[in-house]
Amino acid sequence: MHTRLALGFAIALGSALLAMPTAWADGGFRCGQGHAMAHHGHGQTGVAGHVLRRLLSHEEEIGLSDEQAAKLRSVALDADRSAIRASADRMVSERELRAMMWDAKAEMPAIEAKVKEAESLEAAVRIIGIRAHRQMIAVLTPEQQTKLKTLRHASRHHERTPAQPERSQQSGLQESATSAS
After folding, report:
1. Helix axes 46-57, 108-139, angle to 10 degrees
2. For residue 18, what pLDDT band results from cuts at 50, 70 and 90?
3. Better pLDDT: 7 or 178
4. Is residue 77 included in any domain, yes or no?
5. Is residue 8 part of a domain?
6. CA 112 → CA 82, 97, 107, distances in Å?
7. Rounded distance, CA 42 to CA 110, Å?
8. pLDDT for 51
9. 11, 72, 79, 127: which could join 132 in a potential S-S bond, CB 3.0 to 4.6 Å?
10. CA-to-CA distance for 143 and 147, rounded, in angstroms?
11. Rounded to two decimals, what is the model's pTM?
């Protein structure tokens, strides 16, 4: 009986010890570290991709020209390239920081410098997104910027815009009846 218990404990302990290196190798996702990049890095599209999608989804209402749409895509692509590179640099810095923390020979000033470097790289990613947002808005004419603000306000307050016809109750009932059959 004791032999089976000891064997079960040894297997469980061995499995846990073998799983620990993979927890560090996956970028910290199993340790709760990976979620921070998902929020701060905004995934692969970044802030520029979000603004681009919003602008292009309202292309007709805003009155974007083909040249403006091309310029917006170019700004978004450049910003995404820069943000991806800066984000990768930050991930490398974080990985180096983790290695330093486990190194008994690493001095505290070096660790502090690495923490500051990682935070500086995070700030760089955010600044890239802010700069791209401003560059994309600058592509719009003042009239288009006003239309965009109106659309944004309407979507925040769930109002109908002039381009969105208001559905009557009768047409809503007809649509639901046809979808039910």
Report:
1. 20
2. low
3. 7
4. yes
5. no
6. 26, 9, 9
7. 29
8. 85
9. 79
10. 6
11. 0.58
User: Residue 145 CA to chain centroid, in angstroms?
Assistant: 24
pLDDT at site 2: 65
**Does residue 62 belong to any structural domain of this protein?**
yes
Q: SS3 letters for the chain?
A: CHHHHHHHHHHHHHHHHHHHHHHHHCCCHHHCCHHHHHHHCCCCCHHHHHHHHHHHHCHHHHCCCHHHHHHHHHHHHHHHHHHHHHHHHHHHHHHHHHHHHHCCCCCHHHHHHHHHHHHHHHHHHHHHHHHHHHHHHHHCCHHHHHHHHHHHHHHHCCCCCCCCCCCCHHHHHHHHHHHHC
| Residue whose entry in the numeric block shows the structure tokens 């990049």 | 37
Cα 102 to Cα 15, 99, 108, distances in angstroms: 21, 5, 12
Residue type, 86: A
Percentage of the chain modeled with pLDDT above 90? 46
Q: Based on the structure, what is the number of domains in the chain?
A: 1
pLDDT digits (tens, 9 = 90+) for 102-153: 999 999 999 999 999 999 999 999 999 999 999 999 999 999 999 988 888 8
